[in-house]
């Protein structure tokens, strides 16, 4: 493109002046932000503890002890799916809720939302970063599980992958719903409290080992449904349609509510 000196009009066909800076593509912007999010998480000792260290300790503890009861079957085979569900909850919900809440409090979300990255790009980057962290978690937990004698169903591995992605969607949506509507200090307390409640509600210990009156209520939670679905896949090599529908329902509902109520400003 060229410019007419007398009118300032821009003619078609000329090239930008040398030295012109072009904006990065949307994919590169999202990838760059996702890389920053992953780096921030891995440098944050508290979030790294929740995302990697505690699940590893829990797996070793379950594998080397006889209590609590995990039900019929090889103990390690029942333990690993629950720990994988815990990894998703830790990364997609607890870590994302806390980091997003404080980004919102310190106006990081507002400033990033008006950059070329945009609000949709920012949220996409958070999901991509969560999936990247979960890959690390799955590799670490899976390798440790194999070393401890875990023998998953081969067919179940294929079933488990989309279920892990679905669980990530549900818990990221729940994290954004919490972080986008509640003050940061309250999010910090609530996210950690809910992590403990999720852990106790059919995740580490299978729902079938809980009292009947509690088990029926827990079955409706996304945490328990994700753990149930992963156990069905990795132990029995089958799809648990009820568990999948429960997680899907939570994902859809939380997404709708987060889209409606999420605020980029504190």
From TrEMBL:
Membrane disposition: Multi-pass membrane protein
Keyword Electron transport: no
The entry's keywords: Antibiotic resistance, Cell membrane, Membrane, Transmembrane, Transmembrane helix, Transport
Residue span(s) of domain ABC transmembrane type-2: 46-265
Keyword check for Cell membrane: yes
Localisation per UniProt entry: Cell membrane; Membrane
GO biological processes: response to antibiotic
Xref: InterPro entries: ABC2_TM (IPR013525), ABC2_TM_bact-type (IPR047817), ABC_2_transport (IPR000412), Nod_factor_ABC_transporter (IPR051784)
Gene Ontology CC: ATP-binding cassette (ABC) transporter complex
Main location: membrane
TM stretches of this protein: 48-67, 79-102, 123-148, 154-179, 186-205, 242-262
Source superkingdom: Bacteria
GO MF annotations in UniProt: ABC-type transporter activity
Organism for this UniProt entry: Terracoccus luteus
Signal peptide span: none
Name of the protein this chain belongs to: Transport permease protein
Family: Belongs to the ABC-2 integral membrane protein family.
């Amino acid at each position: 493109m060229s410019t007419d000196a007398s009118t300032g009009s821009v003619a078609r066909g000329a090239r930008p002046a040398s030295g012109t800076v072009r904006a990065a593509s949307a994919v590169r912007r999202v990838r760059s932000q996702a890389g920053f999010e992953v780096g921030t998480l891995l440098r944050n000792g508290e979030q790294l503890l929740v995302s990697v260290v505690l699940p590893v300790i829990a797996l070793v503890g379950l594998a080397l002890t006889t209590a609590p009861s995990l039900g019929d079957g090889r103990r390690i085979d029942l333990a690993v799916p629950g720990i994988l569900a815990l990894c998703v909850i830790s990364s997609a919900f607890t870590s994302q809720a806390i980091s997003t809440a404080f980004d919102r409090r310190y106006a990081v979300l507002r400033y990033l939302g008006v950059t070329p990255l945009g609000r949709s790009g920012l949220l996409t980057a958070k999901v991509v970063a969560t999936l990247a962290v979960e890959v690390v978690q799955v590799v670490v937990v899976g390798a440790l599980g194999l070393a401890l004698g875990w023998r998953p169903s081969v067919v179940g591995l294929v079933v488990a992958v989309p279920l892990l992605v679905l669980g990530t969607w549900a818990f990221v949506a729940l994290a954004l719903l919490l972080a986008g509507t509640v003050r940061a200090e309250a999010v910090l307390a609530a996210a950690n409290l809910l992590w403990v409640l999720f852990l106790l509600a059919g995740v580490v210990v299978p729902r079938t080992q809980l009292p009947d009156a509690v088990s029926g209520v827990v079955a409706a939670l996304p945490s328990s449904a994700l753990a149930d679905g992963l156990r069905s896949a990795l132990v029995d090599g089958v799809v648990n349609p009820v568990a999948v529908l429960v997680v899907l329902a939570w994902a859809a509902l939380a997404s709708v509510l987060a889209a409606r109520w999420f605020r980029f400003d504190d």
